[in-house]
TrEMBL record:
Protein name: Olfactory receptor
One Pfam short name: 7tm_4
GO cellular component terms given for this protein: plasma membrane
Main localization of the protein described in the UniProt heading: membrane
Keywords: Cell membrane, G-protein coupled receptor, Membrane, Olfaction, Receptor, Sensory transduction, Transducer, Transmembrane, Transmembrane helix
Cell compartment(s), UniProt: Cell membrane
SUPFAM superfamilies linked: Family A G protein-coupled receptor-like
Lineage: Eukaryota, Metazoa, Chordata, Craniata, Vertebrata
Organism listed in the record: Hymenochirus boettgeri (Congo dwarf clawed frog)
Family: Belongs to the G-protein coupled receptor 1 family.
Source taxon at top rank: Eukaryota
Bilayer-spanning residue ranges: 25-46, 58-79, 99-118, 139-162, 191-218, 239-259, 271-290
Amino acid sequence: MENQTELYTLVLSGLSDLPSLQLPLFLVFLLVYLMTLTGNLLIVLLICTDSHLQTPMYFFLGTLACLDMGFSSVTTPRMLLDFHNQKRLISIQACITQIYFFLLFAMSELSLLAVMSYDRYVAICHPLHYTQIMHWKTCVLLVLGGFMISVVNSLVHVLLLLRLSFCRLNSLQSFFCDLPQLLLVSCSDTFINVLLILILAIFLGGGIFSLTFCPYIIILNTIMKMQSKAMRSKAFSTCSSHLTVVFIFYVTVFFSYFHPISKDNSAVDKVASVFYAVLTPLVNPLIYSLRNEIMKISLKRAVENL
């Protein structure tokens, strides 16, 4: 069948069809988006300006903040526009573009969380060799490596999407273009696309998952062997923020992508999508700033110097 992706538009179902809720939802998510940008930008500025925070751990945290700003910006501005004009129409090209950047930032964040696990492993299990192992060149290469993997992963999915046809006006049961939802409304055979998702999820996703959680088996074993209660407390503190972020992100992503999609569950799916696509980038800076004493001291110092 001839590719017709350039001829058709899609309809995003949005979060609610009730006209009376459009303005309140617009104001709520506008506030969430502004808070997300402000919180993550503040973390980046603190790390760039405070010499006490210019270490590998905070370099990764600053990178995570940048990814969170990009991740949120892929979906939220479009959602705010739909609340405003209530048309919810999106072209196939724009939809595929949004999917590309959504997958790019999502995979980049997963890769970075795995890198941060390795950083905590080296810091706790090999503290005397930390500066030798985690020097700046290594940190930059680890971040760039994860980003390049994410670029290739997103590009492969998009190239396969471009071969599909969308031959009628369809509604996506979401407030943004999501890969599984888009495949459901295609009138082409999507077997190869679904197979690719499964293969990459098993090998690429499984590898990143293992690299994220396996170091914590060794970390926890090392922490339990520490003689000093203060050292154990400090080690647990540095790991707890990262584990909290990892847990929130993985739980919402697994719930959204690894259960059957149906119209009966569309409301639940939308809530899960809001959580990992909109709220997680807001929660991350709060978790790291509220649970990190050095960050709180740095913020207090910056406020006092204003």
